[in-house]
Amino acid sequence: MKVHVLQHVAFEGLGSIEAWLHAREAAVAYTHFHVSPALPALDGIDLVIALGGPMSVNDEAALPWLRDEKRFIRAAIERGVPVLGICLGAQLIASALGARVYAGVHKEIGWHDIAATPATDDCFRFPARCEVFHWHGETFDLPPGAARLARSAACENQAFQVGANVIGLQFHLETTRASAASIIDNCRAELVAAPYVQTEDALRAAPPDAYARINALMNEVLDYLARPAA
Questions:
Q1: DSSP 28-84
Q2: Does 87 qualify as catalytic in the annotation?
Q3: Integer-rounded Cα radius of gyration of the chain
Q4: CATH topology of domain 2-226
Protein backbone atom coordinates (compact mmCIF):
# COMPACT_ATOMS: atom_id res chain seq x y z
CA MET A 1 0.00 0.00 0.00
CA LYS A 2 1.31 3.43 -1.03
CA VAL A 3 -0.04 6.28 1.11
CA HIS A 4 0.44 10.02 0.76
CA VAL A 5 -0.12 12.25 3.80
CA LEU A 6 -0.95 15.95 3.54
CA GLN A 7 0.37 17.51 6.76
CA HIS A 8 -0.20 21.20 7.43
CA VAL A 9 1.60 21.86 10.72
CA ALA A 10 4.27 19.92 12.57
CA PHE A 11 2.15 19.48 15.70
CA GLU A 12 -0.77 17.68 13.98
CA GLY A 13 0.44 14.32 12.77
CA LEU A 14 -0.94 10.86 12.12
CA GLY A 15 -1.49 9.87 15.76
CA SER A 16 -2.88 6.35 15.94
CA ILE A 17 -3.02 6.08 12.12
CA GLU A 18 0.74 5.54 12.17
CA ALA A 19 0.31 2.15 13.88
CA TRP A 20 -2.35 1.10 11.35
CA LEU A 21 -0.04 1.98 8.46
CA HIS A 22 2.91 0.20 10.08
CA ALA A 23 0.86 -2.97 10.58
CA ARG A 24 0.13 -3.01 6.84
CA GLU A 25 3.75 -2.26 5.90
CA ALA A 26 2.54 0.78 3.98
CA ALA A 27 4.98 2.98 2.10
CA VAL A 28 4.19 6.43 3.49
CA ALA A 29 5.23 9.72 1.88
CA TYR A 30 4.39 13.25 2.98
CA THR A 31 3.78 16.72 1.73
CA HIS A 32 4.73 18.92 4.69
CA PHE A 33 3.09 22.20 3.72
CA HIS A 34 4.81 23.99 6.60
CA VAL A 35 8.12 23.11 4.94
CA SER A 36 7.45 22.72 1.20
CA PRO A 37 4.20 22.64 -0.82
CA ALA A 38 5.50 20.11 -3.37
CA LEU A 39 2.87 17.54 -4.32
CA PRO A 40 3.50 14.18 -6.01
CA ALA A 41 1.97 12.59 -9.08
CA LEU A 42 -1.06 10.49 -8.18
CA ASP A 43 0.18 7.44 -10.08
CA GLY A 44 0.38 4.42 -7.79
CA ILE A 45 -1.03 6.14 -4.69
CA ASP A 46 -3.52 3.89 -2.88
CA LEU A 47 -4.70 6.30 -0.16
CA VAL A 48 -4.51 10.05 0.50
CA ILE A 49 -4.81 11.28 4.10
CA ALA A 50 -5.37 15.01 4.66
CA LEU A 51 -4.67 15.99 8.26
CA GLY A 52 -5.80 18.90 10.40
CA GLY A 53 -4.37 22.34 11.02
CA PRO A 54 -5.25 25.73 12.52
CA MET A 55 -5.59 27.56 9.19
CA SER A 56 -8.78 27.95 7.16
CA VAL A 57 -9.35 26.52 3.70
CA ASN A 58 -10.33 30.09 2.80
CA ASP A 59 -6.82 31.44 3.53
CA GLU A 60 -5.68 31.12 -0.08
CA ALA A 61 -4.36 34.68 -0.29
CA ALA A 62 -1.99 34.12 2.62
CA LEU A 63 -1.37 30.42 1.87
CA PRO A 64 -1.50 30.02 -1.91
CA TRP A 65 -0.55 26.33 -1.70
CA LEU A 66 -4.13 25.69 -0.53
CA ARG A 67 -5.27 26.07 -4.16
CA ASP A 68 -2.88 23.34 -5.33
CA GLU A 69 -3.82 21.11 -2.42
CA LYS A 70 -7.52 21.36 -3.26
CA ARG A 71 -6.78 20.57 -6.91
CA PHE A 72 -4.73 17.56 -5.81
CA ILE A 73 -7.54 16.30 -3.57
CA ARG A 74 -10.15 16.78 -6.30
CA ALA A 75 -7.96 14.98 -8.83
CA ALA A 76 -7.48 12.07 -6.42
CA ILE A 77 -11.23 11.79 -5.90
CA GLU A 78 -11.92 11.95 -9.63
CA ARG A 79 -9.38 9.15 -10.23
CA GLY A 80 -11.02 6.95 -7.61
CA VAL A 81 -8.18 7.15 -5.09
CA PRO A 82 -9.50 6.65 -1.53
CA VAL A 83 -9.25 9.91 0.44
CA LEU A 84 -9.59 10.49 4.19
CA GLY A 85 -9.89 14.06 5.48
CA ILE A 86 -9.61 14.91 9.17
CA CYS A 87 -10.88 18.27 10.50
CA LEU A 88 -9.16 20.76 8.15
CA GLY A 89 -8.75 17.79 5.80
CA ALA A 90 -12.51 17.23 5.72
CA GLN A 91 -13.04 20.94 5.06
CA LEU A 92 -10.51 20.74 2.21
CA ILE A 93 -12.44 17.86 0.63
CA ALA A 94 -15.67 19.84 0.94
CA SER A 95 -14.09 22.96 -0.57
CA ALA A 96 -12.36 21.00 -3.34
CA LEU A 97 -15.77 19.62 -4.34
CA GLY A 98 -17.40 23.03 -4.41
CA ALA A 99 -18.99 23.25 -0.96
CA ARG A 100 -18.84 26.30 1.30
CA VAL A 101 -16.60 26.33 4.41
CA TYR A 102 -17.32 28.97 7.05
CA ALA A 103 -17.24 29.79 10.77
CA GLY A 104 -19.51 27.56 12.81
CA VAL A 105 -22.08 28.85 15.28
CA HIS A 106 -20.09 27.16 18.04
CA LYS A 107 -16.42 26.41 18.44
CA GLU A 108 -16.14 22.76 19.48
CA ILE A 109 -13.09 21.71 21.48
CA GLY A 110 -12.92 18.67 23.71
CA TRP A 111 -14.68 15.36 24.20
CA HIS A 112 -18.24 15.59 22.90
CA ASP A 113 -20.77 13.11 21.53
CA ILE A 114 -21.56 12.60 17.87
CA ALA A 115 -24.69 10.81 16.67
CA ALA A 116 -24.83 8.66 13.55
CA THR A 117 -27.27 9.76 10.87
CA PRO A 118 -29.18 7.48 8.50
CA ALA A 119 -27.18 6.53 5.42
CA THR A 120 -27.41 3.97 2.66
CA ASP A 121 -26.24 0.43 3.28
CA ASP A 122 -23.06 0.92 1.26
CA CYS A 123 -21.85 3.82 3.46
CA PHE A 124 -19.61 3.60 6.51
CA ARG A 125 -21.69 3.38 9.68
CA PHE A 126 -20.75 5.02 12.96
CA PRO A 127 -22.10 3.81 16.31
CA ALA A 128 -25.47 5.33 17.14
CA ARG A 129 -23.71 7.61 19.61
CA CYS A 130 -20.09 7.92 20.66
CA GLU A 131 -17.80 10.42 22.36
CA VAL A 132 -14.95 11.71 20.20
CA PHE A 133 -12.26 14.39 20.34
CA HIS A 134 -12.96 17.73 18.63
CA TRP A 135 -10.92 20.84 17.90
CA HIS A 136 -12.54 23.08 15.29
CA GLY A 137 -14.16 26.45 14.82
CA GLU A 138 -15.25 26.18 11.19
CA THR A 139 -17.79 23.94 9.50
CA PHE A 140 -18.94 23.22 5.95
CA ASP A 141 -21.90 22.49 3.75
CA LEU A 142 -22.06 18.96 2.43
CA PRO A 143 -20.48 18.60 -1.02
CA PRO A 144 -22.84 17.71 -3.88
CA GLY A 145 -23.80 14.04 -3.71
CA ALA A 146 -22.32 13.53 -0.23
CA ALA A 147 -24.04 11.47 2.45
CA ARG A 148 -24.00 12.82 6.01
CA LEU A 149 -22.71 10.16 8.40
CA ALA A 150 -22.81 11.97 11.76
CA ARG A 151 -23.86 15.19 13.49
CA SER A 152 -23.48 16.71 16.96
CA ALA A 153 -25.33 19.20 19.10
CA ALA A 154 -22.85 21.90 18.11
CA CYS A 155 -22.28 21.03 14.46
CA GLU A 156 -24.70 19.54 11.93
CA ASN A 157 -22.11 18.12 9.54
CA GLN A 158 -19.64 16.05 11.53
CA ALA A 159 -18.84 13.36 8.98
CA PHE A 160 -19.68 12.67 5.36
CA GLN A 161 -18.97 10.24 2.58
CA VAL A 162 -18.66 10.84 -1.16
CA GLY A 163 -18.96 7.79 -3.36
CA ALA A 164 -17.44 4.54 -2.18
CA ASN A 165 -14.08 5.71 -0.89
CA VAL A 166 -14.00 9.34 0.29
CA ILE A 167 -14.70 10.16 3.95
CA GLY A 168 -14.43 13.49 5.74
CA LEU A 169 -14.34 13.66 9.55
CA GLN A 170 -14.75 16.99 11.32
CA PHE A 171 -13.49 15.34 14.53
CA HIS A 172 -10.26 13.55 15.46
CA LEU A 173 -10.39 9.76 15.84
CA GLU A 174 -6.61 9.51 15.47
CA THR A 175 -5.92 11.43 18.67
CA THR A 176 -3.64 9.86 21.26
CA ARG A 177 -2.71 11.29 24.63
CA ALA A 178 0.56 12.54 23.12
CA SER A 179 -1.07 14.13 20.07
CA ALA A 180 -3.76 15.78 22.23
CA ALA A 181 -1.02 17.28 24.40
CA SER A 182 0.73 18.57 21.28
CA ILE A 183 -2.39 20.38 20.04
CA ILE A 184 -3.09 21.79 23.52
CA ASP A 185 0.49 23.06 23.84
CA ASN A 186 0.32 24.83 20.48
CA CYS A 187 -3.30 26.04 20.48
CA ARG A 188 -4.25 26.64 24.11
CA ALA A 189 -5.08 30.28 23.29
CA GLU A 190 -8.25 28.91 21.68
CA LEU A 191 -9.47 27.51 25.01
CA VAL A 192 -11.79 30.40 25.70
CA ALA A 193 -14.87 29.56 27.77
CA ALA A 194 -17.84 28.69 25.55
CA PRO A 195 -20.67 26.13 25.59
CA TYR A 196 -18.69 23.45 23.72
CA VAL A 197 -15.13 24.34 24.73
CA GLN A 198 -13.66 22.31 27.57
CA THR A 199 -10.89 23.47 29.87
CA GLU A 200 -7.31 22.34 29.49
CA ASP A 201 -7.63 20.32 32.69
CA ALA A 202 -10.70 18.52 31.32
CA LEU A 203 -8.93 17.78 28.04
CA ARG A 204 -5.90 16.34 29.78
CA ALA A 205 -8.02 14.28 32.19
CA ALA A 206 -9.45 11.99 29.50
CA PRO A 207 -8.87 8.34 30.53
CA PRO A 208 -6.87 5.87 28.43
CA ASP A 209 -9.99 3.99 27.33
CA ALA A 210 -11.36 7.17 25.70
CA TYR A 211 -8.38 7.18 23.35
CA ALA A 212 -8.59 3.42 22.84
CA ARG A 213 -12.22 3.69 21.73
CA ILE A 214 -11.67 6.44 19.17
CA ASN A 215 -8.48 4.85 17.85
CA ALA A 216 -10.35 1.56 17.31
CA LEU A 217 -13.02 3.48 15.40
CA MET A 218 -10.30 5.17 13.33
CA ASN A 219 -9.04 1.72 12.39
CA GLU A 220 -12.54 0.77 11.25
CA VAL A 221 -12.71 3.84 9.01
CA LEU A 222 -9.30 3.04 7.53
CA ASP A 223 -10.20 -0.61 7.01
CA TYR A 224 -13.34 0.52 5.20
CA LEU A 225 -11.40 2.85 2.88
CA ALA A 226 -8.73 0.20 2.22
CA ARG A 227 -11.18 -2.60 1.44
CA PRO A 228 -10.72 -4.19 -2.00
CA ALA A 229 -14.19 -3.12 -3.12
CA ALA A 230 -13.14 0.53 -2.78
A1: EEEEETTT-------TT--EEEE---SS-TT-TTT-THHHHHHHHHHHHHHTT--EE
A2: yes
A3: 16
A4: Rossmann fold (3.40.50)
Check 12, 108, 138, 174 and give the catalytic one: 174
pLDDT by position in tens, the chain (length 230): 999 999 999 999 999 999 999 999 999 999 999 999 999 999 999 999 999 999 999 999 999 999 999 999 999 999 999 999 999 999 999 999 999 999 999 999 999 999 999 877 789 999 999 999 999 999 999 999 999 999 999 999 999 999 999 999 999 999 999 999 999 999 999 999 999 999 999 999 999 999 999 999 999 999 999 998 65
Active-site residue, from 112, 134, 136, 172: 172
Q: Is 174 annotated as catalytic?
A: yes
Contact criterion met (CB below 8 Å) for 69 and 111: no
Which one from 8, 87, 108, 138 is the annotated catalytic residue?
87
Active site residue 172: yes
DSSP H or E segment with residue 109: strand 101-116
